């Protein structure tokens, strides 16, 4: 898990420093986005295994252990190479969980992680707003 002082745990936008709470900034941070992608890939792999695709428990455990082990420098390097953010993070996840590399993102499109992560982050943001409004 990233520390609160890590720049990847803060959403960067000119208005954030003025108006966003620390909690909301974390919801929209790169760390939340990319760890959510990894959780989605793990959920996909678990479902594919249930459907009979050859995925081992060891591969799933490796993915679980690497959810928050994000090498951002490596992901940035891969993004320059592939010119594709999702493929960059597939490779960064594969580096953290090498035994799972063949099954990460198996059969998925970029929209699978991008759109679903957006929806999850929207839900988290709305839950925060709900909490803050109810506490007034």
UniProtKB/TrEMBL annotation:
- Where does this protein act, in terms of pathway? Purine metabolism; AMP biosynthesis via de novo pathway; AMP from IMP: step 2/2; Purine metabolism; IMP biosynthesis via de novo pathway; 5-amino-1-(5-phospho-D-ribosyl)imidazole-4-carboxamide from 5-amino-1-(5-phospho-D-ribosyl)imidazole-4-carboxylate: step 2/2
Q: What class of enzyme is it?
A: lyase
Q: Which InterPro entries match?
A: L-Aspartase-like
Q: Which GO terms describe its biological process?
A: 'de novo' AMP biosynthetic process
Does Lyase count among this protein's keywords?
Answer: yes
Q: Which GO terms describe its cellular component?
A: cytosol
Which reaction does this enzyme catalyse, per its entry? N(6)-(1,2-dicarboxyethyl)-AMP = fumarate + AMP; (2S)-2-[5-amino-1-(5-phospho-beta-D-ribosyl)imidazole-4-carboxamido]succinate = 5-amino-1-(5-phospho-beta-D-ribosyl)imidazole-4-carboxamide + fumarate
Keywords noted in UniProt: Lyase, Purine biosynthesis
What EC numbers are recorded for this enzyme?
A: 4.3.2.2
Keyword flag ATP-binding? no
Gene Ontology MF terms: (S)-2-(5-amino-1-(5-phospho-D-ribosyl)imidazole-4-carboxamido) succinate lyase (fumarate-forming) activity; N6-(1,2-dicarboxyethyl)AMP AMP-lyase (fumarate-forming) activity
The family line of this record is: Belongs to the lyase 1 family. Adenylosuccinate lyase subfamily.
State what this protein does.
Catalyzes two non-sequential steps in de novo AMP synthesis: converts (S)-2-(5-amino-1-(5-phospho-D-ribosyl)imidazole-4-carboxamido)succinate (SAICAR) to fumarate plus 5-amino-1-(5-phospho-D-ribosyl)imidazole-4-carboxamide, and thereby also contributes to de novo IMP synthesis, and converts succinyladenosine monophosphate (SAMP) to AMP and fumarate.
Per its UniProt record, what PANTHER family does this chain match?
A: ADENYLOSUCCINATE LYASE
* Record's subunit section: Homotetramer. Residues from neighboring subunits contribute catalytic and substrate-binding residues to each active site.
Q: What is this protein called?
A: Adenylosuccinate lyase
State the organism named in the record.
Answer: Hucho hucho (huchen)
């Amino acid at each position: 898990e990233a520390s609160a002082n890590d720049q990847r745990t803060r959403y960067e936008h000119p208005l954030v420093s003025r108006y966003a709470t620390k909690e909301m900034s974390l919801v929209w941070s790169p760390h939340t986005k990319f760890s959510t992608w990894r959780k989605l890939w793990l959920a996909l792999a678990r479902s594919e295994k249930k459907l009979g695709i050859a995925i081992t428990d060891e591969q799933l455990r490796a993915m679980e252990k690497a959810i928050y082990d994000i090498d951002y420098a490596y992901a940035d390097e891969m993004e320059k190479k592939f010119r594709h953010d999702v493929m960059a993070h597939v490779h960064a996840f594969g580096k953290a969980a090498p035994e799972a590399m063949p099954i990460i993102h198996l059969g998925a499109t970029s929209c699978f992680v991008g759109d679903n992560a957006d929806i999850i982050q929207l839900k988290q943001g709305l839950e925060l707003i709900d909490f803050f409004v109810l506490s007034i």
